[in-house]
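Here is the promised in-class demo. Please do not try to memorize the tokens; focus on the logic of going from shape to residues.
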């Protein structure tokens, strides 16, 4: 294997590793968002777990943060809880940062 091929493989492996870490962090972020949502809407722990699964599945079907933010906004509104788009995006950012730290700490 040439030096270039080894280097190319190294970049591909790094990209795959980073993509996997991002995927895990987004899934964990969605679980943290479900907890935040549950606190605001007074859900039981079982309902929070079910909502976390729903958020993760929604994110897999509709990749991107905007769809998750819209779902949170719509679901909060349905339950009579008001939140601004800025609040939701700030919470998403906070949860992602926390999730990324947790993923890094776990190794």
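The designed amino acids, position by position:
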């Amino acid at each position: 294997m040439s030096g270039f091929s080894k280097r190319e493989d190294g970049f591909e492996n790094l990209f795959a590793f980073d993509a996997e870490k991002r995927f895990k962090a987004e899934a964990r972020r969605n679980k943290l968002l479900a907890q935040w949502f549950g606190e605001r809407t007074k859900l039981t722990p079982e309902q929070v777990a079910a909502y976390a699964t729903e958020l993760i599945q929604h994110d897999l079907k509709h990749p991107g943060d905007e769809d998750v933010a819209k779902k949170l906004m719509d679901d909060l509104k349905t339950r009579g809880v008001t939140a601004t788009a800025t609040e939701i995006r700030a919470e998403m950012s906070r949860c992602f940062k926390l999730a990324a730290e947790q993923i890094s700490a776990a190794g």
